[in-house]
Amino acid sequence: MINPKFELDRLLETLRARGVSHITAARAVAEAEREINEILQERADEIMQQAIKYGVEKESPEFINELVLRPNDGMFTLETDSSRTDFSEPPFPMLPRLLANAKPMKDGSGVYKIVPVGKKGLKKPITSIVDAHKAVAAQRKADAAERYANVTKKVSENGGKVSFRTATSKQDASTQWVLPATDKDFTEELQSLNEEFKTSAEESILGIIREYEDRYS
Angle at CA 50, nearest 5°, toward 187 and 41? Predict the structure, then answer.
């Protein structure tokens, strides 16, 4: 990875070697540095936005909340506060939560609750950071059981069909009403985004340096 400061120092030396006055060379380097900083921030914002979209797609507010751009030799590296890249979740037993405030069976042998189930509505597309934050905020408000119970409203809004199942205290909580494990591993995504940033930033920096070298050739 190239170092922007080194490239700017090299630019100053090149201009001075070509007979450019110290003041003019210093001004040119300062202007080049401003352009480089702007393009680096722009590229960093782009990969941050893409990382947020990945987090929303996999429904991982934890990942999004930990995202951070750290300075790295004049550039940036996209990481998480904890350095974790895998936020996958194990299977989640829902039966205990579903049976909260359940009704007693007529024979007194347990409790039950009628639960609406069906196809979830389509998610709205993420087109900006604002959309992403809204989606994450909505995700954070509901736990797994509440999301399951709210299926009726989502299905109704999207023209889907609703069916009903009965949850009872006689069912095995380890095998029935269990949300499956979810894959929320962002290792490859972060590696790809950082490589994308590195390649794009280096090309932009060298392009700016060449532009100023040509200007005073």
Answer: 105
Kindly state the tokens that stand for 195: 């490589």
Beta strands in 81-211 (DSSP E): 92-93, 103-104, 111-118, 162-168, 178-179
Phi-psi region of 165 (alpha: psi -120 to 50; beta: other; left: phi over 0): beta
Same domain, 14 and 29: yes
pLDDT in tens, the chain (217 residues): 789 999 999 999 999 999 999 999 999 999 999 999 999 999 999 999 999 999 988 888 889 989 999 998 889 999 999 999 999 988 988 898 889 889 999 899 999 998 887 644 444 444 444 455 555 555 544 444 444 444 434 444 445 566 888 999 999 988 889 888 889 999 999 999 999 999 999 999 999 999 999 998 8
Same domain as 74, residue 53: yes
Q: 126 with 195, same domain?
A: no
Residue 107: in which H helix or E strand, if any?
none
Look at the chain and report how many structural domains it folds into: 2
Give the separation between CA 151 and CA 143, rounded to whole angstroms: 13
- Residue ranges making up the domain that contains 125: 92-179
Mark whether 134 and 208 lie in a shared domain.
Answer: no
pTM above 0.85, yes or no: no
What is d(CA 1, CA 54) in angstroms, rounded to the nearest whole number? Answer: 25
